[in-house]
Amino acid sequence: MEEFAMSNRREFIRTLMGSAAFLGLASTPLELFAKHEIIKLTILHTNDVHSRIDPFPKNDPKYPGMGGAARRATLIKQIRAKESNVLLFDAGDIFQGTPYFNLYGGELEFKLMSEMGYDAATIGNHDFDNGIEGLAKQLPHANFPFLNLNYNFSDTPMADSVLPYKIFQKAGLTIGVIGIGIELAGLVDPKLYGNTIYSNPLQMADDTALMLKKNLKCDMVICLSHLGYKYSEKKISDEVLAQESSYIDLIIGGHTHTFLDEPVRYKNKSNKEILVAQVGWAGIRLGRVDYYFDVRSRKNEALGCSVKISEKTRAV
Amino acid sequence: MFTKIKSGIFIILLLAACSPGNQLSKVETSEYILSDSSSIPEDSLMKTKIRPYSEKMEADMGIILAQSAEALEKGIPESKLGNFVSDLCFESIKREYSPSDGKTIDFAFFNNGGLRKSLPAGNISKGDVFELMPFENELVILTLDAVLTKKLINFMASKGGVPVSGLRFSIKDKAAIDILIGGAAFDSTKTYKVLTSDYLANGGDNFSFLSEASKRESTSIKIRDAIIQHLYIQGKTEEIVRVNLDGRIRNE
Asked: Into how many domains does chain B fold?
């Protein structure tokens, strides 16, 4: 961690010096520094945990002893102890995969996530596995909201239980979070999803993200997605959403159980950076993205437009 | 320790901002792998919350059903796990269910996506079967005309192969050739009865064309129950689980 922190500092100073040089300002780096307050926002995420309450058994051929809710809880607590602005999200498929789900219907999964302080989750296709009624029945055990904007639940028991987006306030930052789900037909048994109506989320997600930024003054928009990372066939995915949208900053994905060792950077439709993250499945990994916001006085607005430097280093 | 595997830093510098407000200046990304070599303890409050659930579950799921000579894993074009599950479902339905019209079932097919976990070598517990087949899916019998049967088998080929029993074919250019059903060549004048899961019969995993089946019979037998019963009998008779690949589906 120490090495990591030092590296951050070095990067940051280099940033300031570089920017001053770029703009040809008279200010020294130190003077610039004095005008800025930096707020750090830490995003933690899981996806497709699939009822993996216990770690995998020690004799598991692929993931011996890995994962487990109790160990994840410790890790999250430790991060919260160090960082003041933490948000914790899950991108769906909380249910199904161990007998915990068969015996208890998801009750324990929701209770443990509530205990860990999840801020929101979206709904995956396997969260319908005990039917829409089975999902609705477990909601009292979750103290966090479920976000989805492209399933119409109005004629289902979930009608009043899902939000299209939620806004989080952290240290003066306003963070908009939306949720989107995968097409259910052909994937989930119709008897399970009942009268849930799916719509293609691409335009709806970007429109909502724009509204969150323009009307509700969000500093950034995060999308919890259960679309899947990418497909060989032409089908809406996190990759497609990243490239075809303009107002989302981070997609926290799931469904395809893709182990991305780090979030993948894309240029969105407006040629701006967007990240797509996904951490495999089963709670084997916890993803983390730290955003640093420069909270500045608005005097600086008139400086002109867009000097952008991107740089990537390995800190560990 | 938790292994912090990779960290990337990139800087988005918008010193000269186009819009007012808080500006993103830098992003760092990292991941933690939760391994059991961790020196960080499992959270004790969590353990306390889990225990009543896990104890009750263990009592039920820890029952050892049978022994296996080797781990059974899924794969394409055929796999030991796929052959094992398909064969036992086909056999158990032939044994325990009589179709209403008295006609025999010709073959069974399933999908790889429905097999959720490998079976281990050595002891196979009831819990292992729940993880292999966590779904409440039931076996159903569909009646398909020859055209639809051919479409189905070609669809299996386009997927690179699926778990089957009573059916053999080769895959060439993503289509099925040399089709044998119950040992006989595919007959374009015959109507076939096939065994599958209600999930696929309802159009799951893009088998939507199965809605064109001329008849559908529910057996009310869960796939998981069929597997558990099969293993239970093997365990009682002290028969070790052994599965062979037999080239039922092969790539040309």
From this structure: 1
**pTM for the structure as a whole:** 0.82
- Superfamily of segment(s) A40-294: Metallo-dependent phosphatases (3.60.21.10)
Identify all chain B residues contacting A288, using CB atoms and an 8 Å cutoff.
29-32
For residue B241, the SS3 value is: strand
Closest chain B residue to A292, measured at CA: B26
Q: For residue B2, what is the nearest residue in chain A, using CA coordinates?
A: A75
- Average of pLDDT values for B211-222? 94
* Residue B150 structural domain: 63-251
d(CA B33, CA A63): 11
In 10 A of CB B122, how many CB atoms?
Answer: 12
A17-31, A77-91, B200-214: least confident range: A17-31
**A127 CB near a chain B CB, below 8 Å?**
no
Is the CB of residue A105 less than 8 Å away from at least one CB of chain B? Answer: no
Residue B185 maps to a domain: yes
Assign B225 a pLDDT band (cuts: 50, 70, 90). Answer: very high
Burial class from Cβ neighbours inside 10 Å (0-12, 13-18, 19+) for residue A292 reads buried
What does the pLDDT look like over A201-230, one tens digit per residue? 999 999 999 999 999 999 999 999 999 999
Residue intervals of chain A classified under CATH 3.60.21.10 are 40-294
